[in-house]
Structure formats: C-alpha cells, structure tokens
Amino acid sequence: MCCGALLRTAVRSCSPKRFVVAASRFSDLPRFPGTDLAEALTDAACRLHETSTPDSTLDTAVRLTVDLVPGAEHAGISVIERDNRRQTLAWTDEVVRAAEDVRPEPGRQPYWHRLWTTPVAEVEDSEGDEGADDLYGLGLRSVLSLRLRTDRRRLTVLTAYARKPRAFDESARRVGRLFTAHVGIALDSATVREQLTEAMRTRDLIGQATGILMERMDMDAAGAFDSLVRASQRENVKLRDLARRIVDTHEAP
Questions:
Q1: Pairwise CA distance, residues 59 & 108, whole Å
Q2: Whole-angstrom distance, CA of residue 165 vs CA of residue 161
C-alpha cells in the first residue's frame, strides 16, 4: 500500500481508548467445526487490517475472539505490569472488566503471572484455583490467556473467558495462538499508520509556526526554525506543543 493510501486509511475516525463492545457483531464469520481454519483466520485477518487505529484494532480483536476461538464467551485485552497491575484496554462486556480489575492478594500470584515465562496461561476451572478464585465469584470458570506483546516491563494479553469449566481444548489453544499472531501484526500496522498520520500533522503544524515566526521576526525559514528549536529546548517543551501554542496564539482574536 502506498503512503497516500496509508494516510487516507489512518485519518478515519478514531475509537475511544477503552471499549465496551457487543460480542456477536461478526455473526457472518466462519465458525468451527464445519469450515476451514485457514478460511476463518483469513477472514478475521482481513477484518483486523481494515481497522484504522490501534484502538479500533483492539476493539475488533476482542469481538473476533468470541466468534473465532472455540468455547469463548467473553474476551478482553489488557496490559499487565511486572507488579501485577492490570489495565484493561478492550472488553466484550462488563464481566470482563470486573474480572480484570481485581488485584491479587499480597503474596499470591495470579494465573496471568505465568505469561512472563510462557505464551499461554490457562485456568481449567476457577473453583478451587487459588490464582483465579475471584473469577469463580463472577461466574467465570475457564480462562485462556495469550500473550500479544511483551517486553521487560509489561505484557499485552488477549484473554478469553467461559462460564463452564474446561471449556478450552487443544483446538481452542491452537486457534488462539494463530489468531493472536494476526492481531499482533495488525496492531503493529495500525500503530505505524497512526504514527505516520501524527508525523504529517506535526510537520504541518511546525511549518505554520515557522511561517508565523518568519513574518513576526523578519527572518528566513531556516532562522525561524532554529529559533523554534532553541525555544523548545530552553523551555523544555516538545517542539510540536510549542508550535501549537504559537499557531493558537496567532489565530486568537
């Protein structure tokens, strides 16, 4: 895809930072058994790559999880810190929010702590599982949690939930692993598109501020830009923010 097409895609309206979404919006997605796995994943990948921002990619991914992963009834995507703090970015319904907002008791490791050393963490039955007993109180018995992204400080995790025990079998794990690979690629692509769009907007904003300084201070473009950079460093303000301040002041009546 050319840069122009990428930018046209990226400037579509953005979704909010967090989502509560209907889990059945993709009723036409191929299901299992009875259809080819490759066909279903291809369809899902196309839907993911139609999204225009990282936020809308996350929104689409949680809905597709329920439609695609065998046994999944609810899904969420969250960021997990080393100290087990967890922030939910997208969810299919409020039970997921409730499940992922619970902080583990001191001295007890939650089930998702295993994801630091393995790409998949499961809870077969939350009843009697010390790392997942809060889920039992919410009516969630099975969990399939898969890593999307990882670095030394945080994990991005896709988690599927079910209300019956042992809901996720080997087929669910296989589909989940393949699907998260597609989600990760789509998320990276959406992030690049968003960064390109922001870079273009920043360039235009800095260009406007440079033009204003050229007019006000009677200097050429290079001198005006250097003056803007020096002011940014002196005031410890991002160049983009300083440029916006100059433009906004110039446009004010």
A1: 31
A2: 10
User: Measured between alpha carbons, how far is 159 from 147 in angstroms, rounded to an integer?
Assistant: 9
Question: How far is residue 243's CA from residue 176's CA, in Å, rounded to a whole number?
Answer: 45
Question: What does DSSP say about strands 19-20 and 86-91: parallel, antiparallel, or unpaired?
Answer: parallel
- pLDDT one-digit tens code per residue, 222-236: 888 888 888 887 887
The secondary structure of the chain, three-state, reads: CCHHHHHHHHCCCCCCCCEECCCCCCCCCCCCCCCCHHHHHHHHHHHHHCCCCHHHHHHHHHHHHHHHCCCCCEEEEEEEECCCCEEEEEECCHHHHHHHHCCCCCCCCCHHHHHHCCCEEEECCCCCCCCCHHHHHCCCCEEEEEEEEECCCEEEEEEEEECCCCCCCHHHHHHHHHHHHHHHHHHHHHHHHHHHHHHHHHHHHHHHHHHHHHHHHCCCHHHHHHHHHHHHHHHCCCHHHHHHHHHHHHHCC
User: What do you get for the CA distance between the two ends of the chain, in Å?
Assistant: 42
For the ranges 16-30, 164-178, 199-213, the lowest mean pLDDT is seen at 16-30
Q: Which of 18-22, 75-79, 145-149 has the lowest mean pLDDT?
A: 18-22
| Total-model pTM | 0.71
